[in-house]
Design a protein that fits this description.
Elements (H helix, E strand, L loop, with lengths): L4 E3 L12 E5 L4 H12 L8 E4 L5 H19 L4 E6 L3 H13 L3 E5 L2 H11 L15 H15 L14 E6 L4 H10 L4 E6 L17 E5 L2 H12 L12 H18 L2 E4 L5 H15 L10
Parallel strand pairs: 2-3, 2-4, 4-5, 6-7, 6-8, 8-9
Antiparallel strand pairs: 1-3
Helix pairs in contact: 5-6, 6-9
Length: 299
């Protein structure tokens, strides 16, 4: 039987959330992402997840479920299980669905069949039955790797001579989510550079040459930024007071706004937003001018 893999703590909140059991004929990353997103809706950001990857036969699935159900009954007196599964093999999906119907203690959620069937219905095309197709090392895969390498090499103002090669350039004061937004965008295949703005430092002159449709300013409020910077400093706050001083923070933000207006960049607010939301707003503007179907414009 294929060995399973455990992630997360024994359970961040065992009373409110069960362990997520992920079963896949690939590596299970898709189901894990859905499980984490679902858990986050209940305030749990690091749920317990047990993964059975690389499944080839239903016998493996049944043994996994029976073994874990027995453990739950012994340790908690409750054999109920929550399973998220993704199979490229439709026969495996049908077998597990039928098995779940017979087991009153098993809640099994098929994350693949409905989306695939919807595409079949819309297009009439026949789906591949190859597991892990999303992870194939094709041209798009290498493009994303190149974008991530570029983004890491151009984080926090490094290598400003390459700004014109970036698909997207982000500007913002310290702790305005520049780096996490950059990394997220790079995972979507965009080459991103980010430039920190600080009252005591001049921005690189290369910014003047960047196409304005690629230039985005990340803006937040002092009310949001102050506690973030204070937490960042921790015990060093008493020494490095300027960084988290209210007057300095207000001046920092005002000078950043002035520069963004001067450069004519698009301003996106990040306060009380997830990185994904910020990135999607950036892409809504960007893709109006640079459609995603076109080759990477900045090469």
């Amino acid at each position: 039987m294929t060995e399973f893999i455990s992630y997360g703590p024994p359970n961040a909140d065992p009373v409110s959330l069960p362990t997520f059991h992920v079963i896949s004929d690939s590596v299970g990353l898709t189901a894990q992402a859905v499980a984490r997103a679902a858990a986050a809706q209940f305030g749990v950001t690091n749920p317990a997840i047990e993964v059975l990857p690389g499944v080839r036969t239903f016998k493996e699935v049944r043994e996994f479920i029976e073994a874990h159900g027995a453990v739950h009954r012994q340790s908690k007196g409750d054999g109920r299980m929550l399973v998220f599964y993704t199979f490229a093999d439709a026969a495996l999906s049908r077998e597990l669905a039928a098995y779940a119907e017979e087991c009153e203690d098993l809640v099994a959620v098929d994350l693949m069949t409905a989306p695939v069937n919807a595409i079949v219905h819309m297009t009439g095309r026949k789906p591949s039955t190859k597991p892990g197709a999303i992870h194939v090392a094709d041209q798009n895969y290498f493009h994303r790797i190149e974008a991530m390498e570029f983004t890491i090499a151009h984080d926090d103002g490094r290598n400003p001579q390459d700004l014109e090669r970036a698909d997207i350039v982000l500007l913002g004061v310290s702790r305005s989510s520049k780096t996490p937004t950059s990394i997220y965008l790079s995972q979507q295949g965009y080459k991103v550079a980010n430039i920190p703005l600080d009252p005591s430092t001049k921005p690189p002159v290369e910014l003047e040459k960047v196409d304005r449709t690629r230039l985005f300013g990340l803006m937040t409020t002092a009310e949001v930024l102050l506690p973030i910077r204070q937490r960042r400093l921790g015990r060093a706050a008493a020494v490095a007071t300027k960084y988290a001083d209210p007057e300095y923070v207000y001046r920092d933000l005002e000078q950043a706004r002035a520069l963004m207006r001067k450069l004519g960049c698009i301003v996106v607010h990040t306060e009380n937003r997830a990185v994904e939301e910020t990135a999607q707003e950036i892409l809504r503007y960007y893709e109006r001018v640079h459609p995603p179907s076109a080759p990477t414009p900045a090469g």
